[in-house]
Amino acid sequence: MTDSARRRYKFRDYLNRRVLIMLALGFSSGLPFNLVGNTLGYWLRDEHTALAAIGFISWVGIAYSLKFLWAPFLDRTRVPLLGALGQRRGWILLTQLLVGSGLIAMAILGTAHGLTVLGTVALVVAFSASTQDIAIDAWRIESSQNRDDLGLLTSAYTMGFRTALLGTEAIILPVAQRIGWNAAYMVYGVLIAVGIIACLWAAEPTEAGEVTEKKRVDAPLSSARGIFDAIAGPFIAFFKAHGTNALLMLLAISLFQLPNFVSGPMYNPMYVDMGLTKDMVGAVRGSFGIVGVFLGVAAGGYLSLKLGYMRALLLGGLLQAIGIAAFALLTFAGPNVTLFTLVMVVDDFAISVAGVTLVAYMSSLTSLGYTATQYALLSSTYAWAGKILKGFSGAAVESLSSHFGLIPAYALFFIGCGVLGVPALLLFWLLARREPAS
Question: N- or C-end of the chain: fewer Cβ atoms within 10 A?
Fold first, then answer.
């Protein structure tokens, strides 16, 4: 790809229909993520739930790690009735309706009916949201016309996703402060309408649709050949394409976001225990945090094109580890607005760079006809280890606090989370030596 080809994108290209749709679909994808994860932990801690219980209930997010198990059906089937919109759009719309309904149900039930009931509904939301991700990721990759176009759509997706994360982790806090957690979840459940409108406005990828339609005709799911191709075909194609590096790729991807996942459930409880108000956290994250996200998304997209996927990943992973470890500084300064703002901006910038570079890299590894399943495999791979380990995050802090006190325990915990990023950096460095630059 020449530099002149890369420079063809101007500001107006970021305002075209597909990019705006991708931005809104990214928002739809990111909307439920914290609402069944870190923000749910804030709600529970606000109502004096034990840290260990908060950590364990975060396991509902394991659904994101297992989505490769049902992704083959999204590659080969259409949703009844809604399938008239197309294979990808039909699945997107169905899952959006389920996510919105589930969030509204969480708002109605609240914690008054017990953690088991609330956790069960949160699990349904997580399952529906992870299925939505499968369909949206497939639409993003199949709608891309070339590598640069994939980078443009990936940046738009990440921008929308990270904006939703900020909205559900920061802006929701002052909202909950004023109207309560139940009403706040009701408001955010309705916001899924942003994604629904984008889905209805989107166009179905034509080339990929022809490939999947041919597969349905030549090897229908009702046949043994069709079942084998739907389940095993994507994995055979992936390992055939990447050879001996395939397992190393999967291992590196699985470890890359460990710092982000494992640290996630403890941010909001730490804010509560340090005496940071919802208004303060929401104001900082909803203003300076957004700036950090925008800069990080732009930097991640630029680095992926300029440096190649591997070198961009190495830099993104290093920044992510530093940004997460920086939260230890807050425990020494107390509720200091200036330092809190600085750490938030650094963290949001670093995680956005890491997120864009990882998504761009994983997207480049998929094959047409198996897009949903292969990307679901890769995105499940990067999530499974972190989703499991994050369940022990509260127990880890409580264990450390018995020896060092609660606030110093948070500091040690976040430093340890930063160190968790080192193995992935070493593996991607090894891959960079074994593969030509991408």
Answer: N
